[in-house]
Amino acid sequence: MRWPLRIQLLLPFAAVMLAIMVGVTLVTAQISVTNAKSRIESRLRDVAAVLQSATFPLSDAVLEQMKGLSGAQYAVTQDGQLIRSTLNGLQSEQLASLSVTDSIDDLSLAEEISIDDQEYFHAAVALQGRSQPGQVLHMFYPVDSYRKAWSAAAGPPFWIGLVGFVVLVLVAFALARTVTAPIAQLRQQVERIAAGDASPIPPRGTNDEVRDLVDAVNQLAEQLTAYDEKIRTLERTRVLGQLGAGFAHQVRNAATGCKLALDIHALHCPQAHDESMAIANQQLALITTHLQAIVNFGKEERRDFQPLDLREVVLEALPLVRPLAQHHHVNITFDSDGAFPMQGEPTLLQTVIVNLLTNAVEAIAAQPRVNPSVDGEVRVELNQEPRGIRLTVADNGPGLPQEIAATAFDPLITSKREGVGLGLTIVREVARVHHGEATYRRENGETRFEIHLSDMRND
User: Fold this and answer.
1) In Å, how far are 62, 175, 404 from 414, measured between CA atoms?
2) Among candidates 79, 135, 87, which has minimal Cα distance to 113?
3) What is the Cα–Cα distance from 316 to 322, expressed in whole angstroms?
4) pLDDT for the residue numbered 411
5) How many CB atoms lie within 10 A of CB 207?
């Protein structure tokens, strides 16, 4: 059977309050009843004392007057015979078995008697101080009047306790709700997390343990989202590694054959050593580097870095992209003075630069030209940073679509119709190999890809 937390919190409060209310009411009622009875008995003792010490005869008029003052009924017996009474139906036989005390101080309403279907408390005292010996004063106090006095004394504590009980139940219910409502939200959040939705719960305004629990669940959701993305990336990386190892061998064989054909052509053709042949050989070298990067994708391997000047690497990469840029009427500018020394692999870094420049040119070319006379612009920048060098490739193209901007560096993510989504992934991997990172952002109408490379010459 389900035992809701709200009931678990509410029942102890209600039980404790109910016990306190009943206990306080009973104790207060008992004290009130005892005090009421004591007051009645004290009043009757005073009446008995007055009648016992009085010198006037106990006539019917005197008894009626005492009845009006005290609320009790009176009767007087002489040697066991009833001589006068304020009760019309009272008989001498009914008084024969009732107890009589000799001392007024011992007088108490301890006995009950029924007279004409009416219940009375009875007390009797011998009137020893009067001139007629053997007279006994019987006093009868109505049980109904006594019960009314009891109700008047016990009623207020009972109703006060009942109101307090109801108020406590409502307060306990409200407090339980403040605890169980966030728990219900947490349960729904956990169910959403299990279903793949890691949207956070709005933070609570009160700084308490429940808020800490909400923050912990939100943090758990963020971590699970990050782990899920990492697992997806690793899975894609593993699949790419398996596929890449399969086709890289075939493509590398074809590239090797092409390189041999160019070398043979250079031996037999005196004019083969021109700029076009040099670019073709560089492109073949890049193909080999790309294939090796795919084969090593996601693998941790030792890198034998060498000293290099990143500015020279950029200058060697620019001619590989200029023909494509000229074809699409895109200007590539690189204005950087001074040296940018670092430790790294020049071929991998050249691959990064060519990838970013090619993407920038193709993005501009794919954008409808508002003014055909205005060429596209791609700018390469090198800047020193406290811990290394920042390589920036900026263009005035449209930028990445909003839906893939956050995952542009993940494998198999692309906005190109014929793309496979590996170019930017390789860029990120090369940056990581050089203990750096790759970032993307839009700023002032420009698309900016930045590669932050650490300077490891002093490591």
Assistant:
1) 117, 53, 8
2) 87
3) 11
4) 67
5) 9
Non-local (6+) Cβ contacts of 320 within 8 A are 279, 282, 283, 286, 350, 354
Residues 6+ apart with CB under 8 A from 331: 325, 375, 376, 377, 378
- Three-state DSSP at 142 gives strand
Predicted TM-score of the model (pTM): 0.45
Amino acid residing at 204: R
256-272 pLDDT, tens digit per residue, is 667 667 667 677 676 65
Count CA atoms closer than 13 A to 371's CA, side-chain side.
4
Going along the chain from its start, the domains and CATH numbers come out as 5-154 (3.30.450), 303-454 (3.30.565.10)
Output the CA torsion 145→148→149→151 (10° steps): 160
Q: Which residues of the chain have pLDDT under 50?
A: none
**CA–CA separation, 445 vs 394, rounded Å?**
10
> Which residue type does 178 have?
T
Amino acid symbol at 11: L
Q: At 294, phi and psi to the nearest 5? A: -70, -45
